[in-house]
Amino acid sequence: MQKTVLSERMFEILTNHVALIEGKKESIIKGFYADNAQTGMDSEIFFREYTAGIEEYLKGTRVKKDAVDSCPISIIGSTVDVRDTEDMETESYQIVLPFENQALLDMSQASCLSPMGKALLLKQVGDRVSIRTPGGQIEYEIMKITITEEITCENDTSTSAGLFQGKTSMAF
Q: What is the 3-state secondary structure (H, E, C) of 105-166?
């Protein structure tokens, strides 16, 4: 079995991302789901499975200094370009943490806890996802995964999530 090759920078970004999400999940769960124990537990399970998924992915990688420096999987904060397999329309969705920077939210963002966000997370280019909507089932193919040019590799939560900073502020 051949291991995926990641750049040192991308390996560090994904490793720090796990630590950041681990640090933020408690405040999200306690701050927004304290009144609903079941939703809080479901959210806890989601975050645990999400970070475990990234850690498992990283175990199957090989780090190489001169490897391609792109994000191989969709993570919270990434923008995912998808193509509807029926009408071939392409759309982009930024996967965000719920309830943070709501003033920046728009229709092209999907909470990581929404059906769309959950379906897109931890996927790779070429993967297909199926999402149940009120209008029916939609099938998408992942076309592209991007992250902002400047990524903070520190657990600094003073930025718009401590994850991404640069030309644009990403809503988290």
A: CCCCEEECCCHHHHHHCCCCCCCEEEEEECCEEEEEEEEEEECCCCECCCCCCCCCCCCECC
